[in-house]
Amino acid sequence: MLLDFLSFKPHSDVHSVPSTESMPPHQNLDEINGSLACRKPYHRNGSLNNNPEGKEALADRNLDHVNLKKRVGLLSGVCLIVGTMIGSGIFISPKGVLAGTGSVGLSLMVWVGCGIISLFGALSYAELGTMITKSGAEYAYLHEAFGPFHKTLGPIPAFLFAWTSVLILKPALFGVVSMSFALYTTEPFFECGPPETLVKIVSILCLLLVSAINCYSVNMATKVQNFFTAAKLIAIAVITIGGFVYMGKGEIEEISTGFEDTIQSPSLIALAFYDGLWAYDGWNNLNYITEEIQNPRRNLPLAIMIGIPLVTVCYLFTNLSYLTVMTRAELLQSTAVAATWGDRVLGVAAVFIPISVALSTFGAANGSCFTGGRLTFVAAREGHLPQVLSYVHLKKFTPLPSLLVSTFLAGLMVLMGDIFALIDFFSFTAWMFYGSTMAALLVLRYTMKDVERPYKVPIILPVSVLCVSIYLVIAPIINDPRIEFLYAFVFVISGLVFYVPFVVMKKSLPYTDTVTKFIQLILWCAPSKYESEYVGD
């Protein structure tokens, strides 16, 4: 492959580097440097013999592409789900559900109900992910379901999802989580709150560190995810145990109120579900990396069956503990619920709480980077984004260009301003695509009814999630109609302005090939291609 070229070893027998003028962006890798069969390959730091990743590259030297490797096992899959679902919300402000229900009993039922809805959605995705073993989650499923119907119109849902998610939703989420990390690492040093400039600087540093980890190694990224997921579970365990201790002391006055003061308005209760379901957002993240999961037809549904019930139990026990230590009024008034809980229960050890929040948000940022980069990678591989974004690093087997673009966009949003408002106005679009994916599952039940489904859910599950998705698209607009929602919708469909010339007509910008060659050489990356390990995929 490019091993001789990448070695930078001044041996006379090493091939000369071809000029970028003569090397097309998708050139067969062996043609770039000639056959390696009769030459001793060198690694940049010496022989490849003691370098496992280098050996993988050598083993693939006869291929004209480089693929991502299957390095995510069951434990890492569970940690990715749990680590991205549990961010900072449950520690800072889990009061939306209580405000919408009015009572302890109904609020706890809503938390469990949201967990069940999320599980229904994730299990429906498990059916899709075990049948279509491509990474990219919604993008891959929308493309497979609707693409065959019409050469031009069929791929539009998948393209609009990629357009919206790659440019807005994924980088905005990555940026928000990094800002939460920055706030909770700097706040203890400032009585009146940290300066905005400092928060942005720390946010950018967080983005760069997380991106560097993900660019360097998938194994390192999964180990980081596993560690920080364990840390946040320990924090939740401490809060849960503290609550049970207080219950043992007879502090159950607030919990014993049960369903007193329950709000009777169905619309407000429905909005409580809206807040609760956003706390569970991230239940679909494992489907973004299906191609990197070891034995996905077993581990994908199994990780979902472990991860989402675990998050549901964590949310239930955490809220139960809060309501054991605080009254409903105190919980609703607190700007940092876990910190208030820590001051009362942990005393001088209350510093444990902000440290836990910082660890939790860093882990969530790592998971957001890991999955967001894969969406960009897959959309580019299908021709819906610049092809160079689907390239893979020759030695590390990471989607380096797509990760760098995702990090750049997230950093841009952090620097530009009110990223939280941006997410508020685009949040309904996420549920629009969740609902579209449930519809895709129903379509595939008809168009691909004879295809093997290693895991199949009862039809009521995707239908239920589809109905919930329709409500969650409409509810925020009806409850608080604002012109910004129209702007968000216009942005989504504005992707068609780029779809027609660049996808349908296959036009390209001037110097695209030159830029592609330059990026391929400077980042040591090469084209990738989807290769299923299963017959018929």
TrEMBL record:
Keywords: Cell membrane, Disulfide bond, Membrane, Phosphoprotein, Transmembrane, Transmembrane helix, Transport. It is found in: Apical cell membrane. One of its GO terms (cellular component) is apical plasma membrane. The keyword Signal does not apply. GO terms for molecular function: L-amino acid transmembrane transporter activity. It holds the Pfam family AA_permease_2. The chain crosses the membrane at residues 72-92, 104-126, 158-185, 197-218, 230-248, 300-325, 345-365, 429-447, 459-479, 485-504. It catalyses: L-phenylalanine(out) + L-arginine(in) = L-phenylalanine(in) + L-arginine(out); L-cysteine(out) + L-arginine(in) = L-cysteine(in) + L-arginine(out); L-lysine(out) + L-arginine(in) = L-lysine(in) + L-arginine(out); L-cystine(out) + L-arginine(in) = L-cystine(in) + L-arginine(out). InterPro entries: AA/rel_permease1 (IPR002293), AminoAcid_Transporter (IPR050598). It is a multi-pass membrane protein. Belongs to the amino acid-polyamine-organocation (APC) superfamily. This is b(0,+)-type amino acid transporter 1. It comes from Crassostrea virginica.
